[in-house]
Amino acid sequence: MKTKSYQSLVEHDQVRALIDNVEQVVVGKRREVELSVVALLCGGHVLLEDVPGVGKTMMVRAIAKSIGAAFKRIQFTPDLLPSDVTGVSVFNQKEMVFQFRPGPVMSNIVLADEINRTSPKTQAALLEALEEGSVTVDGETRELEDPFLVMATQNPIEYSGTYPLPEAQLDRFLFKFKIGYPTKSEELDVLNRVENNHPIERIQEVLSLTDVTAMKTDVQDVRVHDSIKQYIIDLVTSTRLHHAVSLGASPRASIALMKAAQAFAFMQGRTYAVPDDVKFLAPFVLRHRMILTSDAKLSNQTSERVVTEVIEQVRVPAGEEMR
Fold first, then answer.
1. How far is the C-alpha of 323 from the C-alpha of 320, rounded, in Å?
2. How crowded is residue 96: how many other Cβ atoms within 10 Å of its Cβ?
3. What is the DSSP string of 201-268?
4. What residues have CB less than 8 Å from 319, skipping those under 6 apart?
5. Distance between terminal CA atoms of the chain?
6. Which CATH code for domain 221-322?
7. 3-class state of residue 4 by DSSP
8. Could you tell me where the DSSP H helices lie in 268-293?
9. pTM, full prediction
10. Residue-range domain boundaries for the chain
11. Is residue 74 within 8 Å of 113, Cβ to Cβ?
12. Mind listing the pLDDT tens digit of every residue in the chain (323 residues)?
């Protein structure tokens, strides 16, 4: 069966300019680019699980260049230490004081490459940054820059020498999704674009960090009617009650889904969220926050199928309920 193509609904001029700019580098993945911008505007983070070479790194770099953001890449390896991520205090013998040397996480946009290849202790060094936007080193808490976006990648094929992300860490990511292979025509377009030089070298800044910060403030003003909030709660609660799920989505998932709906509505030029915002975003917010039962796994049940069933079964609020 042919997959229905994604129809972009972005109406906000600045957001559309940002996405169009990134698409000079990332071909045919507008939905994934838009989801990344949703995360940027609502203060969330993204986990990209896909095979090598599909453009994960290029997408992150393109977003950073498009908004003039400081960009750092952390290559997660088995020998990486927490201080290699957060930073370390070094004693200055000349001035006889300890000086803090910030780690790569103290940037605007951070690419955490192959995050599942490092030890759980180093993975945990990201938890405070993901949830609270700060890092604590030697008892001193330092705030991270705003905007702050972590895009982590992991390879779903290679499991040797990897450390699966614990549920507490997965729960800190707003979205988890794949980029996927391009179509033949899209791959031809990619070849044409990189024939002489890579488009990432030509991409220009189209927004400033001040623009992004202002948009983040506007996103917080997007109205979410009580009936939509109840719809979100019903969806999340249904994952906890589903017969194939041993551990459902947490209250953090409800908050994440509401915040994402606010950003998605803003991108479409609206000052209020609608049920379709929630329905579109729910799979990307909920799928990675559930643990299936052993019986469900043996019967080849998937979290994707569970979320689809939940969305189909939960009643959508009618228009008159939102007045």
1. 6
2. 7
3. GT----S-HHHHHHHHHHHHT-B--HHHHHHHHHHHHHHHH-TTEEE---HHHHHHHHHHHHHHHHHT
4. none
5. 39
6. 1.10.8.80
7. coil
8. 275-286
9. 0.91
10. 13-208, 221-322
11. yes
12. 344 667 778 889 999 999 999 999 999 999 999 999 999 999 999 999 888 888 889 999 999 999 999 999 999 988 999 889 998 888 777 777 878 888 899 999 999 999 988 888 888 888 888 988 888 888 888 899 899 999 999 887 766 567 778 888 899 999 999 998 999 999 999 999 988 888 898 899 999 999 999 999 999 999 999 999 999 999 999 999 999 999 999 999 999 999 999 999 999 999 999 999 999 999 999 999 999 999 999 999 999 999 999 999 999 998 656 65
CATH topology of domain 13-208: Rossmann fold (3.40.50)
How crowded is residue 308: how many other Cβ atoms within 10 Å of its Cβ? 14
Task: Give the HSE-up count for residue 14: Cα atoms under 13 Å, Cβ half-sphere.
Answer: 16
